[in-house]
């Protein structure tokens, strides 16, 4: 192997470069990314950066270009792929090995009016400039990004309305009932939350809803999810299905090509299904396995997915996977209606922990993640007692 091309200079792309060198690969590496910024971490954008607690330079990923000896090409986009060649805006790049790490792009809604999304440093700075006391902000979507933007806008003194198509916040990620416990957080922050409400269009002065009524707003933020950034791969013959399809080694259907991060839908041995996880920890961890796969080593990517969100003054953390028939029942640790700190544990039919959501209970999260990894059975009665350490259940 003489030449590896990494497409996408986000966290997963940068970690792939580092992992290739860590695995002893000393051939040529070309890293291309369409953004003009140095590679950076996105989580602070909707938190410390939007809240004016940190500036964007604090988000830059540490990268020792000299030590890594990479050919890094900024503001260059991949346009197409054929076996052994990436077509870019600056010409063709031949490869022996290819890492696809192009992440995801936010979905925008219909309408002629301006709508902010939050994915890049530029998005964050543009939005931050608009958040000021008395500004009317309409946030579309009460998912992870919507909740964090709402928190920042309310903190800046804006009048915030959140419009959510589902019956509860976070319903797409957690299901309707789990997300419902976060509803009071909106009112406590002075935010109006409209559930089961669909937006028909984004207009110049606000939103038109599906029932024809209107919400007037100075600023509209659309936070309704992302799509894997794989348009450049169409026609390449690579298998795509909600992202780039990979096996448990992160190998795609094309020889010598692996995929990592938000754009990769990998086969999870642990959960016996394909997963595409749009979270930081996946972009951090997957590249080590992808580098091994590209260099012909035998490694399996089989993590317990993890993410966190900081919203309305709460630290919300999740580990595992509970969608589908795997989660037979749920056990609460604490009462979300009365307790400040609580957790939800999803158990399989034979009482093994498959996922855990914690609100301001970081110790539960750490212990729960280990238990999901280990796969042992729990005593559900002890689990329901929040005073009992999770590891002792
Ligand atoms: P990206 O970070 O999207 O990087 C992909 C890069 O590829 C981009 O720079 C893109 O411009 C480039 N690219 C795309 N197409 C091409 C092309 N054709 N040619 C060249 N380059 C291309 N996760 C958590 O777990 N917790 C959090 O609290 C959290 N907060 C977040 C807050 C925000 C505002 C955002 C946007 C995300 C957050 N995430 C969070 C998710 C996390 O940041 C992502 O999962 C992670 O960034 C994915 O990394 P990636 O490298 O796969 O993709």
Shape: globular
Task: Provide the CATH superfamily of the largest domain.
Answer: FAD/NAD(P)-binding domain
Q: Give the helix proportion (percent range).
A: 10-25%
Number of strands: 25
Give the termini distance in whole angstroms: 49 Å
Description:
- By secondary structure, this protein is of the alpha/beta class.
- It folds into 3 domains: about 5-105 and about 225-295, FAD/NAD(P)-binding domain, CATH 3.50.50.60; about 110-220, FAD/NAD(P)-binding domain, CATH 3.50.50.60; about 315-390, Enolase-like, domain 1, CATH 3.30.390.30.
- The protein is about 20% helix and about 30% strand.
- It contains 10 helices and 25 strands.
- The chain has helices spanning about 10-20, 65-70, 120-130, 145-155, 170-175, 175-180, 185-190, 280-295, 360-375, 380-385, and strands at about 5, 30-35, 70-75, 80, 85-90, 90-95, 95-100, 105, 135-140, 160-165, 190-195, 200-205, 205-210, 215, 220, 225-230, 245, 255-260, 265-270, 275, 305-310, 315-320, 330-335, 340-345, 355-360.
- The strands form 7 sheets. It has a 5-stranded parallel β-sheet, with helices on one face. Strands 21-22-25-24-23 form a 5-stranded antiparallel β-sheet.
- The mean pLDDT is about 95.
- The protein binds flavin-adenine dinucleotide.
- The site of flavin-adenine dinucleotide has 36 residues, from helix 1, strand 2, helix 8 and strand 21.
- Flavin-adenine dinucleotide binds next to helix 1, strand 2, helix 8 and strand 21.
